[in-house]
């Protein structure tokens, strides 16, 4: 199955969930047009409070739709966009990508993956137990964050459900994703 965009979402306000829409427009160096997290510098409230001049490495939030399937099997009821993601994907292991991987979405848009989303307690306010459900442990006991990846927009363009996704990997050695 080819990697595709299944849903696109945005919110003009600092809300937990984002509304699905027919298309989003990515703006180079800024993020999703009209989304509260768009900008050159950080827009997430906790990061703004710490240092509002930090570069915005979280312009776009992507979650693999397979996580929604996993959570549904565990008894959670979630729709795309509900965990704050802008782009929900299918057929691509976002968490296995290295830092600097580039996702080509549709004919024009390119996102560079900057790191992992760090799940926060707001998930439990949305649905009790959700934070623990998006965290796991690998075979060595290391924490695994499953709540998606964050990226910056390198090339703008419209992104719609059904758009194909291709990946360009950065030069070796690859750097494992860390939380951003």
Kindly state the number of beta strands.
Answer: 13
Per CATH, what is the topology?
Answer: M1 Pyruvate Kinase, Domain 3
Low-confidence segments, given as residue ranges, are: none
> Which class best fits the helix and strand makeup?
alpha+beta
Number of domains: 1
- The shape is globular
Order of helices and strands: EEEEHEHEEEHHEEEEE
- In terms of quaternary structure, the protein is single chain
Instruction: State the CATH class.
Output: Mainly Beta
Helix count?
A: 4
Protein name: MOSC domain-containing protein YiiM
Organism: Silvimonas terrae
Domain MOSC: 19-168
InterPro entries: MoCF_Sase_C, MOSC_domain, Pyrv_Knase-like_insert_dom_sf
Task: Describe this structure as you would to a colleague.
- This is MOSC domain-containing protein YiiM.
- It is a single chain.
- The protein has 180 residues and is α+β, with helices and mostly antiparallel strands.
- It has one domain: PK beta-barrel domain-like (M1 Pyruvate Kinase, Domain 3).
- It is 13% helix and 32% strand.
- The protein has helices spanning 45-50, 65-73, 122-126, 130-133, and strands at residues 4-10, 19-21, 24-27, 31-32, 60-64, 87-90, 102-105, 109-116, 135-137, 143-145, 149-155, 157-159, 165-168.
- An 8-stranded mixed sheet has the order 2-1-6-5-11-8-7-13.
- The longest helix is centred in the middle third of the chain and has 9 residues, at 65-73.
Question: How would you summarize the topology of this molecule?
Answer:
Elements: E1 4-10, E2 19-21, E3 24-27, E4 31-32, H1 45-50, E5 60-64, H2 65-73, E6 87-90, E7 102-105, E8 109-116, H3 122-126, H4 130-133, E9 135-137, E10 143-145, E11 149-155, E12 157-159, E13 165-168
Parallel strand pairs: 5-6
Antiparallel strand pairs: 1-2, 1-6, 3-4, 3-12, 5-11, 7-8, 7-13, 8-11, 9-10
Domain MOSC: 19-168
Protein name: MOSC domain-containing protein YiiM
GO molecular function, one term: pyridoxal phosphate binding
């Amino acid at each position: 199955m080819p990697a595709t965009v299944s849903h696109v979402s945005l919110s003009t306000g600092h809300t937990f969930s984002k509304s699905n829409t027919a298309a989003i427009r990515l703006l180079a160096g800024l993020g999703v047009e009209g989304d509260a997290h768009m900008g050159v510098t950080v827009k997430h409230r906790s990061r703004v409070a710490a240092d509002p001049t930090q570069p915005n490495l979280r312009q776009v939030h992507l979650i693999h739709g397979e996580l929604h399937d996993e959570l549904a099997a565990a008894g959670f009821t979630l729709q795309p966009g509900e965990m704050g993601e802008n782009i929900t994907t299918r057929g691509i292991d976002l968490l296995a990508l290295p830092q600097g991987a580039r996702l080509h979405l549709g004919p024009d848009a390119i996102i560079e993956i900057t790191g992992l989303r760090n799940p926060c307690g707001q998930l439990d306010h949305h649905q009790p137990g959700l934070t623990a459900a998006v965290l796991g442990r690998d075979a060595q006991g290391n924490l695994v964050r499953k709540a998606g990846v964050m990226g910056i927009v390198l090339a703008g363009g419209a992104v719609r459900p059904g758009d194909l996704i291709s990946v360009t990997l950065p030069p070796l050695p690859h750097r494992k994703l860390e939380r951003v």
